[in-house]
Specification:
The complex is a heterodimer of chains A (612) and B (332). In chain A, α15 packs across α16, α15 crosses α17 and α22 crosses α23. Helices cover 50% and strands 7% of the residues of chain A. In chain A, β3, α12 and β4 form a beta-alpha-beta unit. Chain A has 612 residues and is an alpha/beta fold. In chain A, the strands form two sheets. A five-stranded parallel β-sheet of chain A has the order 2-3-4-1-5, sandwiched between helices. In chain A, strands 7-8-6-9 form a four-stranded mixed β-sheet. Chain B is α/β, with parallel strands linked by helices and 332 residues long. Chain B folds into two domains: 169 residues, 3-Layer(aba) Sandwich (Rossmann fold); 138 residues, 3-Layer(aba) Sandwich (Rossmann fold), CATH 3.40.50.11700. In chain B, 30% of the residues lie in helices and 23% in strands. Chains A and B meet through α6, α7, α9, α21 and α22 of A and β7, α6, β9, α8 and β12 of B.
Chain lengths: 612, 332
């Protein structure tokens, strides 16, 4: 059976042993794991969930890796992983059927969040008391444990029939159901007030952090480890109610001796719309560290993918001991060694000159460029920096120039978007994308097949991944997308940018340095919001540092590029050169439409219509 | 406790049953649409003495002269849909029944809905109102769906998707544990990449495909062509064919499938494709409250396209019956 990109890797749903078995501890992970508050900022699929789940008690306990003991000794806390996803966020958003006032809705959603946190805490405490002589285990004699449960139940306003950890979890599950039915009842009540909410849902008055800290203190007191710390690992926190975001992010700068926070956020989530620096004075001891999970530089993505490759290659015996370039070959960038097996320099030079000659024959602007620079197409001098600089662009332009892609062009296409460097770059160092593509390639390869793996197999996997990603972007909502609403289509914006770069690269007159990144300056507010959605979805990658706690408060003046996973879709090279203003790109698209030269529109094949 | 009506029985019916029972319908609903198939049902219930409404989505234009004459001859009134207005309409129906001295409160509210051309948002809202109203303890819901003859998918520039979310708060679902993985049931349509994009967007851990089978074979070919990646990636056990003309069977099949997910998954239904699957998905979600039904909004902003009706009809008659929502039935 073959594997598709869709069967790729979703850390939320992997079984624990699958996740810990393939986990790669990057530098970012160690930064997040430390004994401090941490903000983990990254687009979808950038590994936030994996990192947070790996810090949960269960995962730290069961991780088998050469550095696992270092982690267990370094992590001085017990991690409580609090799950969340888009489907859960939509359920919470619908509580009360849209008929509750803002303050009543806030109270109800806060109760749901609090219950989710307490459920996760109860499960972790249960795990801690059930283990013996292993990491994070605590020993509490039976009768004392029963009184612990009774105390915690009282603090959390729960009725438990049996004094066991399991009964706490069950009672919290019933509470979760009660929140839903309570919200429905409250929504039907005329003139509803906050007092009515608290009367129907008395536990809604519990501040989650206070309730949690009290519960954790009770169990630690019984375990005779009063100073023990716990870490609340909050996944997909951008979907939480803004008031909760303010409360938690504000807590990062305050002292809680019992609880650390490690919070996963999208780079342009709702939290970035207000300044959080004013929420509490920073202190030397109780501050936070922010880790950004995107790779502005290719070399950084390559390094991480190399680690990922080695962590997973053991699952495929014929590949054991092989390097990534032996398995996938090298990516052709004009003068590189495609087979990764040390092709002779003279052969590479032959290919380079072939590209120069071919392009000169079909592109007058390139012929003029060669004349002006006194370059010999038949024998380009690779010792010149100019030749090395333009070689990849010449190769790309040569492959794509022409109305219809020739067979030779298609072969070049395979070379541009396959090979180890392309695979790693296109994945953006995103574990979900990388593992999905590699799994799919390997599943279509027989043990007896020669290495490097056939380019067409690689290209198929990359094309499928790119297609799935593009389809997702075309489906992307423009209302309430992680708290952002815009009138502009996200995909249309991406398409406009991609088409501009492609035209400059392939159709316009040849120049030495073609812009392949853009800078935001003076753009329409709706466009900026569409761009923010694209950043959250990983379709646009920042080449600048975030300016705000947890992400980008403004995009003005920041530099970005399109994700390389979109490169096959828009026929772009896997590189980001100098930038052009986004306003220039948008003005160019407007002028093009007016002149009828090109209309960048959403492809209607991706729209939902009435079928049948 | 909130009262909620849930489907307790379902059966198919013949179009002749509609004509035979026309007089007993309290309400008949069809769409004001640019599609000629929207005009088929009004002709069937001329004899009905209940309220007959032709629903405008707010952004739609007035009906064509031909359509106007069909609606008017059949006694339909135009209704710009709004959920509270629909509730008021039901209240008016209930009050009329009372003033006429009938015993209507004891009998089911009988309503006929042609879902063929109604926007999904409106179908969901109507079902939500019918399930949550307190005027009748039972509702007899007759649904008709007229599949179109084959029309190629629309091409050209269209409005962006606005929301990718549960179609209505009543159909958002609820669960006792947030951390359960998402399992998506995807009804396939013939829009290229639409289902694939939605599955990717939701980050579903697993999915099941519902592939429509109908007398118009060209749809099936297009559906398979435009969802090739999803279909190829699925194992046989993940692909279910359903007969567009047999919604009762589909209701049972889908209901059984989501019942098996209880306590293990967050079931999300993405019923692209024929609207009858969308309607059936809503009925399943009324039975299984963990289930959420999602849609991709924006269809009402699209330019209407003429899709002539085929000679086939799919029908399902569902009895919604009073009962208290027993949320404890949701798996803990």
């Amino acid at each position: 059976m073959t594997i598709s990109f869709l069967e790729a890797f979703n850390a939320k749903d992997l079984r624990l042993n699958e996740m810990v078995g393939s986990f790669v501890p990057s530098d970012e992970f160690w930064e997040i794991a430390g004994n401090w508050n941490a903000l983990v900022v990254g687009p979808r699929g950038s590994g936030k969930t994996t990192y947070l789940r790996m810090l949960s008690l269960e995962a730290v306990r069961s991780w088998r890796h050469e550095r696992a003991d270092s982690l267990r000794s370094a992590v001085g806390y017990t991690g409580i992983y609090v799950p969340a996803d888009i489907a859960w966020g939509a359920m919470v958003e619908s509580l009360g059927g849209g008929r509750l006032s803002d303050e009543c809705f806030e109270a109800v959603t806060t109760a749901a969040f609090c219950t989710n946190v307490l459920q996760s805490a109860a499960a972790t405490m249960s795990c801690a008391v059930s283990g013996e002589d292993c990491h994070g285990s605590i020993s509490i004699p039976g009768p004392i444990l029963e009184s612990v449960v009774v105390e915690i139940a009282k603090a959390w306003k729960l009725d438990v029939e049996i004094a066991s950890m399991g009964s706490l979890e069950t009672a919290l599950a019933f509470r979760m159901l009660d929140i839903h039915s309570g919200a429905l009842e409250l929504a039907a009540k005329p003139g509803l007030t906050l007092s009515d909410v608290y009367a129907r849902l008395p536990y809604a008055t519990l501040p989650f952090d206070v309730a949690l800290t009290v519960g954790l203190s009770i169990i630690d007191r019984a375990a005779k480890r009063i100073d023990h710390k716990w870490a609340l690992l909050l996944d997909e926190f951008e979907i939480a109610h803004p008031s909760l975001q303010r409360r938690v992010l504000g807590s990062l700068r305050s002292a809680n001796r019992k609880l650390l926070y490690k919070v996963a956020l999208a780079p342009c989530g709702p939290h970035t719309s207000e300044s959080l620096d004013t929420l509490g004075p920073p202190s030397h001891k109780n501050d936070y560290k922010q880790t950004n999970l995107w790779h502005s530089e290719k070399v950084s993505a390559l390094r991480f993918c190399d680690q990922l490759f080695h962590s997973r290659v053991g699952h495929h015996k014929p590949l054991a001991g092989k390097t990534p370039t032996q398995v996938f070959g090298r990516t052709w960038e004009g003068d590189s060694d495609e087979q990764g097996n040390g092709a002779r320099a003279s052969d590479r030079l032959d290919k380079l000159s072939q590209d120069f000659l071919e392009l000169r024959s079909k592109d007058q602007s390139f012929a003029r460029f060669l004349d002006e620079k006194h370059l010999d197409a038949a024998s380009p001098d690779t010792s010149l920096s100019l030749v090395r600089k333009i070689a990849p662009l010449v190769a790309f332009r040569n492959a794509f120039r022409g109305a219809v892609l020739s067979r030779k062009g298609r072969k070049k296409l395979l070379s541009v978007y396959t090979g180890w460097e392309a695979l790693a770059s296109i994945s953006e160092g995103n574990p979900r994308w990388f593992i999905g593509m590699v799994n799919m390639i390997i599943s279509r390869t027989r043990e007896t097949d020669p290495l490097p793996i056939d380019r067409s197999v690689q290209h198929h996997a990359i094309e499928q991944a790119s297609e799935a990603f593009s389809a997702m972007l075309q489906t992307a909502a423009t209302e309430q997308a992680m708290g952002i609403t815009t009138t502009k289509s996200v995909y249309e914006l991406l398409s406009t940018i991609g088409s501009y770069f492609n035209r400059r690269l392939v159709e316009d007159d040849f120049i030495e340095e073609i812009p392949l990144s853009f800078e935001v300056s003076h753009i329409d507010g709706e466009i900026e919001k569409a761009l923010r959605i694209a950043i959250n979805l990983g379709a646009v990658v920042s080449l600048s540092e975030p300016d705000e706690m947890g992400g980008f408060r403004t995009l003005e003046g920041k530099r970005f590029r399109l994700a390389y996973l979109l490169a096959p879709e828009f026929r772009l090279p896997l590189r980001s050169t100098k930038s052009v203003s986004l306003s220039t790109i948008l003005a160019d698209a407007t002028a093009s439409r007016r002149s009828g030269r090109r209309a960048d529109t959403i492809d209607a094949r991706h729209r939902q219509g009435a079928l049948f | 406790m909130i009262k909620h009506l849930i489907p307790v029985a379902a059966q198919a019916f013949d179009l002749s049953d509609v004509a035979d029972n026309a007089a007993s319908f309290d309400m008949a609903v069809c769409a004001v649409s640019g599609e000629s198939r929207a005009l088929k049902v009004p002709g069937l219930i001329k004899a009905s003495c209940g309220r007959k409404i032709a629903i405008h989505a707010q952004t739609h234009d007035r009906p064509s002269p031909r359509a106007s004459s069909v609606y008017e001859r059949a006694g339909f009134e135009y209704f710009i849909y709004d959920e509270s207005a629909f509730r008021s309409l039901l209240e008016a129906c209930s009050a009329e029944g009372t003033t006429e001295g009938s015993n209507r409160g004891q009998e089911p509210f009988r309503i006929l809905v042609d879902v063929s051309c109604l926007p999904r948002r409106i179908v969901a809202s109507m079902f939500a109102v019918l399930a949550s109203q307190a005027l009748w303890s039972e509702v007899d819901l007759w649904l008709i769906y007229n599949p179109a003859r084959y029309v190629p998918p629309v091409t050209g520039s269209l409005e962006p998707n606005r929301r990718v979310a549960p179609v209505h708060p009543v159909f958002a679902g609820w669960i006792s544990r947030a951390g359960l993985p998402v399992r998506t049931v995807v009804g396939l349509g013939y829009e290229r990449g639409k289902a694939l994009g939605a599955v990717e967007y939701i980050q579903s851990s697993d999915y099941v495909l519902f592939v429509p089978e109908s007398p118009e074979k060209r749809y099936r070919a297009k559906v398979e062509q435009h969802n090739r990646q999803l279909i190829r990636a699925a194992s046989d056990a993940q692909v279910f064919d359903y007969d567009v003309l047999q919604p009762v069977e589909t209701f049972q099949m889908l209901g059984g499938l989501v019942a098996g997910m209880k306590g293990q998954y967050k079931p999300v239904l993405l019923p692209f494709g024929p609207k009858i699957l969308f309607a059936v998905s809503l009925l399943v979600a009324l039975v299984h409250r963990e289930v959420s039904v999602w849609h991709v909004s924006g269809e009402e902003l699209e330019q209407p396209v003429e899709r002539p009706g085929s000679s086939y009809f799919a029908t399902i008659r569902v009895r919604l019956s009073a009962g208290r929502t027993n949320l404890n039935e949701i798996a803990v």
